[in-house]
């Protein structure tokens, strides 16, 4: 497809009045004469200039503009301007999310004015006739959300265009032929947006990097990372710095720490984990109490502020977990070696140590730097076997060594006692109003070439919950220890706001279709009814849909120095202390905790708030990349199942089609309304359904249907289904 850049003159300018007003409002502090306006419109013929002069006089008579000096005009500003973030829709229009308005403000495609998805923009609003909602016009782009985009390059004789991935980008990017950076036609490239002249259809850009050919595995994975500005390799100087660190355990450093090397200590992690950033220790004291230590890799010992290693870790802010690889926050010499609490190795750790009784009541606590020795490493499956059998035997089929073995009795006893305590702590949390999300995770079995050969579901068992409860305990108690000090000290909190009432009402509308009812009387009633629903839905066809919709109802958790508590966990104080190998906020928490243990004054709040915002943003980008990699792998998996029929649940309904999630593998695709040829289907928003005009047959959210794969597009990450029908109809 060849595209041409439109530029030149016209003797007929559509919507000239609005166009002139838009120009004057955009630069509302400047005055313009008719020649300057003509230049901005890129017209130079006499007819167009006369039209402009005539419209200026009309606007002057209506007092919409004023004449500041002879022949020069500026807009009369009687509107209030606001700022917000643009969220593009797929058809070129969008919505602005602004703190000044409860509802999002609609922006039609002709009022977008070159803003792109995620941009921070200035805008003004006017009443919209349709249902009284607000509509607005963007008047200025304050800050671009991003400058780098991933797309496929189309090369012509003297220029090229990059067709950007995703349905929220309404324009291609024009690239001069001398800035294609050796790209070949059809390559996937990373392009940087450099400028967008007012009279140009498309922005100009430069190709920064050629990522490869569309559809190739590494190309698509690197494209996912590049899309969100996430790196996939460390700069050589950072690798060199990390490799030259002294990672030995020496007596001088040990002398500064609490020595816990003789206390029984072990790790429980996924069987394929390489970075073990937390370990548990267990000891029965003479007074009958249990001393339990939560020991965390002391990353801040190696990653010192002001170094290039710290700068790199901060910029990344998080490890990124894609389906086939981990992009670590720290170089491997630290993440998998020096900081990893591997079995039979001494390590520097930062610890939270608690003395507890049989009722899981805490009688004393201690925080500080330690040196530990891990006596054993378990996979979750191995620890689960101990919990289920209450014995020491680890069967061959779940053993990470590949052979059956017996763990020492004292280790099994420690696991069993901590499981008992964890269950008590979990019950208490639920009683206090915590929300119980045990969402099913989709995992893939991959062959040597990273092709998906199978799908399995990961669920949280007692062993997972044991680790979870003690990590939550450490995070909570560290936050309480600092948060309750007076005078107030700057600290990094992990906060989670209460769910929005409107979103809860929408959720009720959906789940009522399945017979579930929520109670909105007060905070505890909401929590209790949500937990009841999440428990009742387990194992049912609609479970994943209800779980997903409930999570979407919740506010996003984020990092901040301003503590408001954590609604989902029902904690008044909460932080992230337990994963510094993979999360930068945990590194900050370790530094601040040590600072205050040393008796130093409060840190600069503004600096830490900025770091918190950056960490939250990077976490958000990382989550999107992880989701995209799962989506990519699902589509790749479905490529080999094109002639099979699948039972699925309708997971979304729109006026352009229905989204269906396959029950057996959680892959989600779309059935286009254009392909539903047996009737003319209309979208019923109140019923979350597409309804046939003649037959009255409806396809409603949460309903089971049978589908076949129509098309798989690895590049656009689209999975299209053909609707076969409803299960009961097929059986007849």
What topology emerges from the helices and strands here?
Layout: H1 16-26, H2 34-41, H3 46-61, E1 65-69, E2 72-75, E3 82-88, E4 94-97, E5 105-107, E6 120-127, E7 134-143, E8 148-155, E9 159-164, E10 173-176, E11 188-195, E12 204-212, H4 217-227, H5 236-243, H6 251-254, E13 258-259, E14 265-269, E15 278-284, E16 290-297, H7 299-302, H8 308-316, E17 320-321, E18 326-327, H9 332-338, E19 346-356, E20 362-373, E21 376-379, H10 380-389, E22 393-394, E23 405-406, H11 409-431, E24 441-446, E25 452-458, H12 462-483, E26 493-495, H13 501-511, H14 523-536, H15 543-553, E27 558-560, H16 584-597, H17 605-638, E28 645-654, E29 657-662, E30 668-672, E31 681-684, E32 689-692, E33 698-700, E34 704-713, E35 718-725, H18 727-731
Parallel strand pairs: 5-7, 13-20, 14-21
Antiparallel strand pairs: 1-2, 3-4, 3-6, 4-5, 6-7, 8-9, 8-11, 9-10, 11-12, 14-15, 15-16, 16-19, 17-18, 19-20, 22-23, 24-25, 26-27, 28-29, 28-34, 29-30, 31-32, 32-33, 34-35
């Amino acid at each position: 497809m060849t595209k041409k850049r439109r530029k030149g003159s016209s003797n007929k300018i559509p919507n000239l009045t609005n166009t002139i007003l838009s120009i004057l409002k955009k630069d509302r502090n400047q005055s313009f004469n008719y020649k300057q306006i003509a230049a901005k419109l890129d017209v130079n013929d006499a007819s167009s200039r006369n039209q402009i002069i005539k419209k200026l006089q009309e606007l002057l008579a209506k007092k919409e503009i004023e004449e500041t000096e002879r022949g020069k005009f500026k807009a009369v500003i009687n509107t209030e301007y606001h700022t917000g973030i643009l969220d593009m829709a797929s058809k070129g229009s969008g919505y602005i999310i602004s703190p000044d308005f409860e509802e999002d403000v609609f922006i039609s495609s002709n009022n977008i004015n070159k803003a792109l998805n995620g941009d921070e923009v200035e805008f003004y609003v006017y009443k919209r006739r349709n249902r009284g909602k607000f509509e607005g016009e963007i008047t200025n782009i304050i800050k671009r959300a991003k400058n780098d985009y991933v797309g496929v390059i189309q090369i012509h004789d003297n220029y090229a265009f990059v067709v950007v991935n995703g349905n929220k980008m309404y324009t291609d990017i024009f690239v001069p032929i001398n800035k294609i950076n050796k790209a070949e036609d059809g390559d996937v490239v990373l392009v940087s947006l450099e400028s967008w002249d007012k009279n140009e259809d498309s922005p100009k850009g430069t190709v920064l990097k050629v990522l490869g050919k569309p559809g190739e595995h590494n190309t698509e994975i690197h494209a996912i990372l590049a899309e969100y500005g996430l790196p996939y390799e460390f700069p050589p100087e950072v690798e060199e710095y990390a490799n030259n660190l002294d990672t030995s355990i020496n007596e001088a450093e040990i002398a500064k720490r609490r020595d816990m090397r003789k206390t029984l200590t072990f790790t429980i992690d996924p069987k394929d984990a390489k970075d073990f950033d937390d370990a548990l220790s267990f000891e029965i004291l003479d007074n009958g109490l249990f001393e339990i230590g939560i020991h965390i890799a002391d990353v801040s010992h190696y990653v010192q502020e002001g170094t290039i290693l710290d700068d790199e870790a901060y910029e990344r802010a998080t490890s990124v977990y894609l389906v086939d690889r981990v992009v670590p926050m720290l170089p491997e010499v630290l993440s998998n070696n020096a900081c990893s609490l591997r079995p039979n190795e001494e390590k520097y750790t930062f610890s939270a140590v608690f003395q507890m009784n049989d009722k899981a009541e805490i009688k004393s606590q201690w925080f500080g730097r330690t040196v530990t020795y891990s006596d054993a490493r378990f996979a979750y499956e191995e620890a689960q076997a101990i919990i289920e059998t209450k014995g020491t035997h680890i069967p061959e089929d779940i053993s990470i060594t590949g052979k059956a073995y017996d763990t020492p009795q004292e280790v099994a006893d420690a696991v069993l006692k901590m499981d008992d305590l964890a269950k008590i702590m979990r019950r208490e949390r639920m009683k206090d109003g915590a929300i119980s999300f045990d969402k099913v995770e989709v995992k893939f079995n991959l062959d040597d070439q990273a092709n998906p050969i199978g799908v399995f579901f990961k669920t949280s068992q007692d062993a997972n919950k044991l680790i979870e409860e003690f990590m939550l305990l450490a995070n909570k108690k560290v936050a309480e220890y600092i948060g309750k000090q007076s005078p107030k000290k700057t600290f990094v909190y992990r906060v989670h706001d209460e769910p929005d009432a409107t979103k809860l009402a929408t959720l009720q509308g959906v789940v009522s279709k399945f017979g579930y009812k929520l109670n909105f009387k007060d905070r505890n009633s909401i929590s209790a009814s949500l937990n009841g629903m999440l428990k009742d839905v387990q194992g049912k066809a609609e479970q994943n849909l209800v779980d997903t919709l409930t999570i979407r109802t919740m506010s996003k958790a984020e990092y901040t120095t301003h503590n408001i508590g954590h609604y989902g966990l029902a904690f008044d104080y909460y932080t992230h202390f337990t994963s510094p190998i993979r999360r930068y906020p945990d590194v900050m928490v370790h530094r601040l905790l040590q600072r205050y243990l040393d008796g130093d004054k409060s840190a600069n709040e503004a600096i830490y708030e900025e770091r918190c915002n950056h960490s939250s943003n990077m976490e958000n980008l990382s989550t999107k990349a992880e989701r995209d990699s799962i989506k990519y792998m699902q589509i790749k998996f479905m490529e080999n199942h094109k002639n099979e029929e699948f039972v699925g649940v309708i997971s979304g309904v729109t006026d352009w089609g229905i989204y269906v999630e396959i029950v057996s593998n959680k892959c989600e695709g779309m059935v286009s309304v254009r392909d539903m040829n047996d009737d003319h289907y209309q979208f019923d928003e109140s019923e979350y359904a597409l309804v046939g005009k003649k037959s009255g047959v409806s396809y409603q959210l949460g309903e089971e249907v049978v589908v076949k794969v129509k098309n798989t597009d690895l590049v656009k990450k689209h999975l299209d289904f053909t609707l076969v029908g409803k299960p009961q109809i097929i059986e007849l």
